[in-house]
Amino acid sequence: MELSTWLAFFAASWAISISPGAGAIAAMSAGLNHGFRRGYVTSFGLILGIWTQVIVVGLGLGALVAASSMAFLVVKWLGVAYLVWLGIQQWRAPATPLAAKTEEGAVVVTRRSMILRAWMINAVNPKGTIFLLAVVPQFMNLSQPLVPQYLIIAATLAFTDLVVMAGYTALASRVLGALKSPAHVRAMNRTFGGLFVAAGSLLAMFKRAE
Question: DSSP code of 145?
Fold first, then answer.
């Protein structure tokens, strides 16, 4: 991949990462519930989900999802169901600022489960698959080996997402100091729960290009 091509993709990847979506909601939700240091773990799960999408597109499975109505619908509704489930979980979360705080009787959320949840958000998302199918080929040189180019693309997306999601997580974690009562925490939990459900609803309306 030529430097000029990579610089163009690097600029595009910032727009991809910054644009609000389920990943940004997940990062902010993690920052709100776990603080920055622990909540930032979610970003690694989101990146693993992006890498999964890149692999899917690279293997040609993304084209199958884009072309097959049945495959597209199965993946789409799995993603919708997962986002709505996350929204319900967030809505019903205990009204405590730090769900992972290691106090007696507190609910401990493991880093592994946080990473797995975040991975699912990006991995089971046909909108992301089709987006990568539309964007990535514009930066690929088919006359050169494809694997190194996919690795560069995956690394670039990971870098921009690490930076952007750090911002989203830090922004939400700062809100922790303003949550002075269980009522405040409950309101924030329900806000983010509603955002997850809204993201699922938007995904439900997403249609495969004919």
Answer: -
With a CB cutoff of 8 Å and minimum separation 6, the contacts of 22 are 83, 121, 122, 125, 196, 199, 203
Residue holding tokens 């992006």? 50
Share of the chain above pLDDT 70, in %: 77
Written as six digits, the tokens of 127 are 């909108």
Residue type, 190: R
Category of 82 on φ-ψ map: left (φ > 0), alpha (ψ -120 to 50) or beta:
alpha
Q: What is the DSSP letter of 105?
A: T
What is the C-alpha to C-alpha distance for residues 136 and 145, in angstroms, rounded to an integer? Answer: 15
Mean pLDDT of 97-111: 54
Comparison of pLDDT for 180 and 113, the residue scoring more = 113
CA 95 to chain centre: 24
Number of helices and strands in the chain (H, E) = 9, 0
Q: Per-residue pLDDT for 209 more than 70?
A: no
| Angle, CA of 47, 117 and 161, to the nearest 5° | 20
The end-to-end CA distance of the chain, in Å, is: 31
The Cβ-side half-sphere exposure at 166, using a 13 Å CA radius, reads 7
Please name the residue that has the structure tokens 């990535």: 136
